[in-house]
Structures are given as structure tokens and as C-alpha cells.
Write a structure and sequence with these properties.
mainly alpha; two-stranded antiparallel sheet; 14 helices; about 60% helix; disordered N terminus; ubiquinone; NADH-quinone oxidoreductase subunit H; transmembrane helix; EC 7.1.1.-
Length: about 450
Amino acid sequence: MSTVTFIAEPVDLSAFGHDPLWLVIAKALVIFVFLLLTTLIAIYVERKVMARMQMRVGPNRVGPRGLLQSLADGVKLALKEGITPSGVDKPIYMLAPIIAVVPAFMAFAVVPFGPEVSIFGTWSPLQLTDLPVGVLYILAVTSVGVYGIVLAGWSSGSTYPLLGALRSTAQVISYEVAMGLSFAAVFLYAGTMSTSGIVSAQEGSWYVFLLLPSFLIYVVAMVGETNRAPFDLPEAEGELVGGFHTEYSSLKFAMFMLAEYVNMVTVSALATTLFLGGWHAPFPFNLWDGANSGWWPVLWFIGKVWFFLFIFIWLRSTLPRLRYDQFMNLGWKILIPAALVWVMAIASVRAFRNAGYNTWLVLLCVGVVLGGALVLAVGGLYRGRRRDVEQPPAATATAPFDPTPFDPMAGGFPVPPMPGQTVSAFSRTGVTPTETAAPTETSEDSHA
């Protein structure tokens, strides 16, 4: 058995921080334009793909095959009259969309698009900058964006936006824990928190295969973090009218939508960087010697990002919105415990790896044990829910008649009776009933 101790080498970040000013500005502008164009295309593609899945046509009026529909909608929102309700906290109300959209763009500063290339004679990596804790920077910046949602709901001075803001707070707290734990497994295995270092560590094999549980946990958490269906509870139109942005219109509403789609691109790019090898070419393109050099890696990176964007669209088209209790149970009772156990397993694998043991054998054994435990846990949860569903309710249609008068207006709003209960005669104003209907009376007799 080999006794060579594995020690992670420090990531070389010397290529960053030496670009001339004009190149830094050019990179920032390219990232800004890339995110804006991706948002416009993503809205059009989402409407077309959803229409295809639902046997509809989708946008087909503005431009050839409706290609300019997203641009027309953006111009319309920008030129519409902005209405500010009288009861809002105006400074915070105006600032909230800005707080939501700015961090979404800032997070892309450390995302690597490709290797070092020659840009007008200057060799520079296709990345604005990098940090020793680059992934933590993304997590911190995207966490600031939720303040825009919370402040928008609070400053609107209305009930439904406030409920949406509270939901968003609980949602971020719940799913950022699971997301951070999925990151921890990547940090432990790669030995670095730098985005460029994590991409370099996946040159041989991608972490989607080595750290599959972390990848699955992250995919679920990233949908919850971006408030997308089936986790769009802060803006559930069936329950909260429009949620946190109910009182917003015109350009301020467009900024919230822009922040949502840019965040989708950001979490997709982060998933690509952490688990799908970043800008490295997929199979079979990686068999070509020049696939990971020059400008080709930009194509592989954008293709992987669009793969995740399609997953977002697919989920919205197929899954119904979860109830709030189901959403919280998924985060706190399944994702976080599973992520904790997986992080401990990866830490154990890393310790065995440093001691010189066969990493693949240890990882395989741990994965089998954890996979079996997860299957048993999910199976037990499913059987428990099925027993609850199959168990007959306490009061059924065959239950004996309950002579106690039932007042539908006792709580201040009408409530339907349970099986076995009878509705007493009552007025529309909710006066205490004085007459109880017999169980054999017909509806005409009871109203008489």
C-alpha cells in the first residue's frame, strides 16, 4: 500500500490583478452585455419551450418567429408610467430593486469563462478576477440580493408583499445552509476555494461524478435560492397576488425580473464551475487536443450554462408549486441532514486520502452506505405519508350524528362543516345560532 501523503498545492493566482485598465473595463462590459443578452434570450426560449411542452405556439408576432418579443417587452416596461403607492416607505421602496439587481451582476466577477488567451496582444485569463475564497464571495454577494426582496415587501406597506418578503427570508435561510454544505464538500475534495483552482482540479474527472450527492443537493438548493417554480413561494400569484413585487410597476418591476434571470445564469455558471468541469470540454470533444485551448472553452462553458437554464424551464413547465410546509420540510429534514452526513463522509475520504489509502475504494464504500441510508430514509418518509393518506379521517360519512350545533361563522369567516356535523340556522352577520337542524331534514326544511 502506498504511503505517499497527498497535500494540496496552493493555487497560482499570479495571472490576476495585472491586466491594464482598458482590459478590466472591457471584461466588465462583456460580462454585463453577456448577462443582458442571456436574459433576453432566456425569456424568449422559456416562453417558446413552455409553449412547445403545453402544445401552444408561444410568441410569434414581434420579429421573425417572435424573436424580438423580449426586447419589445423590456422597452415597454422601461417606457411605462411608474406608479408609486401613497403608503410606501419611498426611499427604501425605490432602493430595493437596485439592491436586488446589482449583486446579481457582481457575482459574475470571479466566474471563469476559459483559460488564458491573447486579447489584442495581451495574455489574460478569461475571467475578470479571482480570489482565494472566490466561491465564498459568490455566496456572500448573492445573499445580499435577498435584501432587495425583503425590503421591497416591507416598504410596500401592504400585506401580501410583506408575506412574500417573510417567505423569502425563510427560504434563503433554509436553502443557503444546504447550498453552503454542498460547497464544503467541493472545497474539501479540491483543496481550494478559488474558482479557477476548482476548475483546474477537474481536468481529469468532473465532480458531478465524484460528488454526486453534493451536485443533487446544490441543484435543488439553487432552484430554491432563485425563487423559481416549483419553489416560487415569495411571489406565488395564487396565494399572494404577486408576492413581494405586487406594488411595483414599470422599470422597477423589470429590474426585479432582470435580477431573477441574472441569478439563474449565476447559479448555473456556479454549478458548471463546481461540478461540470467549468470551461473544460465534454466528451467526446475532449479527445481533441485543442478543445481546451484558445476560445473554444467559452463555447463549452456557455453550453453547460444553457443546460441548467433548460432545467429551470423544464421544472417550471412540469411541476406544480409546493406548499410552504412541504418546502420547509424538504430543506430542513432532507437536504440539510443529507448534506451534513455527506460532508462528514468527504472529510473522512480526504483523511484516508492524505494517509495514502485508495481514494476510489473508500469513496465507493462511503457512497454505497450513504446511498442505502438515503433510500431507506426516503422510503420510510414515503411509507409514513402513505399510511397517513390511507388512514380514514376521524369523522367519516358513516360516523354517528353529532347533535352539537355547528356555527360556520364562529371564527369570523365561513367554514364548511365536517362529516357528521349539521349546520344550524344562522344569519349572514354571524349571529349565534339558536336553532339546530335535525339530521333528517332536507335543505328546503332547514332554510324554512
